[in-house]
Amino acid sequence: MLDKVKQLCNQWSTAELFYHRSIQRLGVHSDKSSSKTSIYSIMALAAIALTGECLITSKNSHIKSDCVDWEKNDNKIDQQLITNVGKPKTLAEVENIILQFASTVYEQQYCCDNYSSSNLKGIDKSEFKKSSSPSCIWHPNAKSYGTPNELEQCSTAAEIILEFASLTSSAALINMHGNLPKYSNVVLDDSATVQDSIIRSPAVLNNNYNQLPDVSFVKDSKLIDQVLTTSAISTSNRDNSIDTFSRNLEISQNRRKSKFARRIEIPTLESSKSNNLKNRGDEKYFHSLKISPIMNFEETASPISKVDSVSAIHERVINNIFKSQLNAFTNAACTKSDTIVGLSECESLPILDAPYDLTIGTKLKNMNLETKNTSSIQTNDTKDISNDKKKPHIKKPLNAFMLYMKEMRAKVVAECTLKESAAINQILGRRWHELSREEQSKYYEKARQERQLHMELYPGWSARDNYGYVSKKKKRKKDRSTTDSGGNNMKKCRARFGLDQQNQWCKPCSPNLSVISTVNNNGNVVINSNAAANTIGVSMLAPIVSGIGGTVMLPNSSSSSSSSSSTSSSHTHAHLMASSNGNGVASLNGISVTAGGGGGAASACSQQLSPQAPPTYVNL
DNA sequence: GCACCTTTGAAGTTT
DNA sequence: AAACTTCAAAGGTGC
Question: Are residues A95 and A12 in the same domain?
Fold first, then answer.
């Protein structure tokens, strides 16, 4: 199942990548208003990318059939083209295939439709006609890829995504009007310099982690010259040599290297803001960033769809892959520096272990946490590092309710005027109990998957590792709870003795419903005493069942036993859950109370409990 | 800047 | 084994 998800994620992200890259190559905008042909063509491009990715990354040929639903793709030309090109095995081949198709699209769409030449400004149209051997933006000097030795072995999906993130994270490339970022030279010619070649070419990381990765960029003569120069300078200063080495790599040579370096850098507030493209008006573009492991800084407030759910898993899988890639890279860099500079240790390139939870809201925070540690290590490299290295904080997987809260919080906030999370959580807690078993089971299943994935990602992790992470807070809480005689103790008595042994409950915990007052003129039961709140507990107050089928009116003061002082309305309304006894008098014997009923800040929403959703009952 | 609040559930610790 | 504690998210609030 997990493999399947990974495959789907790879397919998806690769399709998106090639979608954008193809648009970049074509020099056109991602315009939804384009004709269907154009959109369809782009989709076909993505499909090709999917096929390529599957064929490239998968060692199992059977996956091919799962990659693209060819039956739905009724474009015979596309199929024919795809069939004709055979099985791509490298990035270059994939790009060639796409460009072949792109040239067809270009001729069909943009030429025939008198597409404005301004939209293709800077694009050498003749390039599209050279479908046999178009130049590659990653291989600008390679007019063709005649022999296998010239081929760059294809990267993994993670590398492609990283590359894409690197492209899109460049502020200079971002079109402020929401257009896709473009290369200054979309079509490269023979005059492209070696430096350009180095900058545009991706580093190739060997995916076989048992072997030392082939850091191809180091083999570049110009780079080696710089490295050697650096080496000559830095041999007298052993401590700074790797830093200098890294800096040379980062600044001048390789885009991917600089991307990794960014990951290691301390992200400033400004940089994170500049990377936040959420409000730039191009949802599609932002979505493409949302799946990237680097750019995903902020979480959207939309409810979690199935796609989002997969994206969340995808993100974590990609993050895992990214870590592996980074480890491979750092190992390679260290090994290379070993060879060239003569070092024996890899002190200045700490291997980051990203936290489990990389959802956008906490990602930056966690990255800051990590990078602070990294920074401290780097700045104190003369000290004994081994003692200061802290284990990265791997957070607990979210349980079902947490997942539910995360999904529904925005919705509740939108519905209510409340902004205080404590109050929101009360509402969410109540709504959680209102959910049907089927609805809840969906979140329990999600939580189970979360735990499973967490176990796979961090096999040695235990919840115990996080104990004491916020020790001060917990200590204070603990002290306070021992002196608290309110609802908290009630909860303890109920938990300790159970509902069957209420005679053993302490006095404040003992159920005493005599405080409930009579029915008012409207046929509603009005609870007058604060003691009711202390007895039954806030979460159980509202839906006290009488027998009227009307509404229970709760005094505000009784519904707030804790600090939820944000309650604003005077009464909480709740439909009665039991059947009426017919005489308008509240029946207190054998009544049922829904646990988690409305109360406290929930009243600010004036929410009415759903009469058909009593998931749990507590007999009093 | 950090703890608190508030919810449920999972997992760890204590009794 | 049951009871109890801690920590996951979230963001306003208060110190």
Answer: yes
State which protein residues have CB closer than 7 Å to strand B. Answer: A 396, 399-402, 405, 420-422, 425-426, 428-429, 432-433, 440, 444, 447, 451, 462-464, 467, 470, 472-474, 476-477, 480, 538-539, 562-564, 595-596, 600
Order of strands across the sheet with A551-555? A516-519, A525-527, A551-555, A571-575
Indicate if A83 and A199 belong to the same structural domain: no
Contacts (Cβ under 8 Å, ≥6 apart) of A376: A388
Give the range of the structural domain holding residue A287, as residue numbers without chain letter.
Answer: 156-384+391-395
Task: Judge if A605 and A478 occupy the same domain.
Answer: yes
Place of tokens 């600044």: A251
Q: How far is the CA of A593 from the C1' of B14 (A)?
A: 32
Q: How far is the CA of A476 from the C1' of C15 (A)?
A: 15
Mean pLDDT, rounded, of chain A: 45
Question: How many domains are there within chain A?
Answer: 3
- Using C1' positions and the CA of A425, the closest nucleotide is B7
Secondary structure string (H, E, C) spanning A525-548: EEECCHHHHHHHCHHHCCCCCCCC
C-alpha–C-alpha distance, residues A71 and A60, integer Å:
21
Name the E strands within A371-469.
none
The values of phi and psi at residue A518, to 5°, are: -85, 180
Is the distance from CB of A192 to CB of A136 less than 8 angstroms? no
Mean pLDDT value of segment A40-66: 45
CA geometry: angle A370, A373, A378, nearest 5 deg: 125
Q: What are phi and psi of A517, to 5 degrees?
A: -90, -170
- Please identify, among A357, A373, A395, the residue that sits at the C-terminal boundary of a domain: A395
The mean pLDDT value for A164-184 works out to 36
Question: The domain spanning residue A454 has which CATH number?
Answer: 1.10.30.10
Nucleotides of strand B under 7 angstroms from a protein beta carbon: 2-13
Both A563 and A502 in one domain: the answer is: yes
pLDDT tens-digit series, residues A321-367: 444 444 444 344 333 333 333 333 333 323 333 333 333 333 333 33
CA atoms within 13 A on the CB side of A404: 22
Q: What is the pLDDT of residues A386-415, one digit of tens each?
A: 333 456 788 899 999 999 999 999 889 888
